[in-house]
Each structure stands twice: as C-alpha cells, then as structure tokens.
Write a structure and sequence with these properties.
The protein has 283 residues and is an alpha+beta fold. It has eight helices and five strands. 15% of the residues are buried.
Length: 283
C-alpha cells in the first residue's frame, strides 16, 4: 500500500510534465504556422490553380493577375514625335525585355499629341515609363488588374475533359466490329473535339500571355500653357471664319423670322382698326 501511494504522485507529476510539453509544442507550432510565408506561384499556374487547396479543405485559387498600366507624359510639342519614336524603338529592340508594339497614334496641328501601346514583360514597365518621362513631366498614372484565376481553371478543366473524351472516342474507333455509320459519327465527334481542344489551347495561350506580360499605354501631350496658347492662336486664326459663320446665321434668322413679323404687323393693324370703329359711334 505504501508503495502504491509513493508511485501515484510520481505518475501524476509525469502526466503534468507531458501535458505542459505538448502545450508548449502546440504553441510553438502555431507560432511557426502564423509566420509561414504564403505560397509563391509562377507564371505557369494553371494546374496549381486547379488543384490548390484552401485552408478549410475546399479547392482554392491562386491569383493570376493581368495588369494594364497607363501613364500621361507632359512634354513640349516639338519633342512629342521624337519621344514617341524613342519609346517605339526601345520596344522593338527589346531594350527592357520582350516587348511588342500594339498601337501607335500621332496627331499634329494645333493640338499635337501622341500615344504608344505596348505589351512588355513586368520588369520592363518601370524602365519604359522612365524613358518616356525623361526630361519631361509625368502627369497622371493608373494601374488596373484583372484576376484570371477562374478563367484559367475553367479552361484547364475544359481541356482535360476534351482530352479524356478524345481518348475514349479513339478507343471506340479501334474496335473492329464498328458499323460504317458509327465510324462516321465517331470521326465527326473526334474532329469536333479536336477543334474545341485547339480553341481552348489558343485561349490558354492568350491567358498566359496576359499574365506573363503587361499592357502599357503611354500618352504624350504638351503642357497646359502650350495647349492654352494653341487654343488662343487658333481662335485668332478663326476670327474671319467665325465672323462669316455668325453673319450667315444672322441672315438666315432674319429671313426665317421676316414672314412671322409681317403677319404679326398685319394682325396688329387689323385689331387697332376694329377698336377704332367700335369707339367712333360712342364718341
């Protein structure tokens, strides 16, 4: 009995130490879990997005963002064309990475302006904007992003379904006991599945292109002072045309209102004469 009483406190002490050890390990594990970095996803994320797992066990999606940037550069009017050509040349030469010119617009006259739209790798966006704004003033700038994770996942699922369907159809096509009508139907179905698979693959390439590269639009305009002077100069140059136009509209208005004025004058004269006749006998 005395041995039993001696053993019981020892067992209780051991259990308490074990519980404290588990609690400390649990707290340490929670601390490391909270500090764990988020998973990093590269450009080829279609399969990962399809099979990713959220913390609650439900299928999750990795962010697949397609970025579009726009920047406005205020630069003297006589330097707009040269700066546009410099940006276009830098893109064609892939000076800041893979780049494709998508759109070029230039306007002269009293309101000169130009714009360049390129698709470039993410690392080249800032250097290209710096080149456009060199020795100039960077005006407004905006960035927007579209999350294509759901679209990429759905496209991957469509391609997977079409591949499995083609495999089954090709297995049926190998059967020696197929009738001619069945073989024709299978061939048509395989051709349709191949066309759909090719279309889905092209859509996937477009998604990947939008994710791997970014759209950048650069807009070049003269400063506000130059624009104001241009408007004043144009107004002075258009004085003759404005005067001619105003005179023409005045003549048209007089010609349009003359018959109405004549009719009103006749009516007023008739009304006055009638009133005079009514007043004459009473006088």
């Amino acid at each position: 009995m005395q041995k039993v009483l001696t053993v019981i406190p020892t067992v209780i002490l051991a259990l308490a130490l074990a519980a404290c050890g588990r609690s400390g390990q649990s707290e340490q594990a929670m601390a490391y879990g909270a500090a764990a970095p988020a998973p990093v996803y590269d450009a080829k994320m279609a399969e990962r997005a399809q099979h990713a797992q959220a913390p609650d066990g439900e299928p999750g999606l990795a962010a697949m963002l397609a970025y579009e940037h726009s920047a406005s550069v205020q630069i003297p009017a006589d330097r707009i064309a040269g700066r546009q050509q410099a940006v276009q040349a830098a893109c064609n030469e892939a000076r800041f990475g893979a780049c494709v010119v998508l759109n070029v617009h230039q306007q002269g006259g009293d309101w000169p302006s130009a714009s360049v739209t390129v698709r470039i790798v993410p690392e080249g966006v800032e250097p290209m904007i710096a080149l456009a704004g060199e020795d100039a003033r960077l005006g407004s700038r905006s960035t927007r992003a579209e999350d294509l994770a759901v679209a990429v996942r759905d496209n991957a699922q469509v391609q997977d379904r079409l591949r499995r369907e083609m495999e089954r159809l090709q297995e049926f096509q190998q059967r020696p006991d197929l009738a001619v009508a069945d073989m024709i139907a299978l061939s048509e179905r395989i051709a349709s599945a191949e066309a759909q698979l090719e279309s889905a693959a092209q859509q996937e390439a477009q998604y990947r292109r939008r994710i791997d590269t970014q759209l950048l639009t650069l807009d070049f305009r003269p400063p506000g002072g130059e624009a104001g002077r241009s408007e004043i100069g144009q107004a002075l140059r258009e004085v003759g045309a404005t005067l001619s136009l105003g005179t023409a509209w005045t003549i048209r208005a007089v010609a349009f209102l003359a018959p109405l004025v004549l009719v009103l004058a006749v009516l007023v004269a008739i009304i006055r004469r009638v009133r005079r006749r009514r007043r004459a006998p009473g006088a």
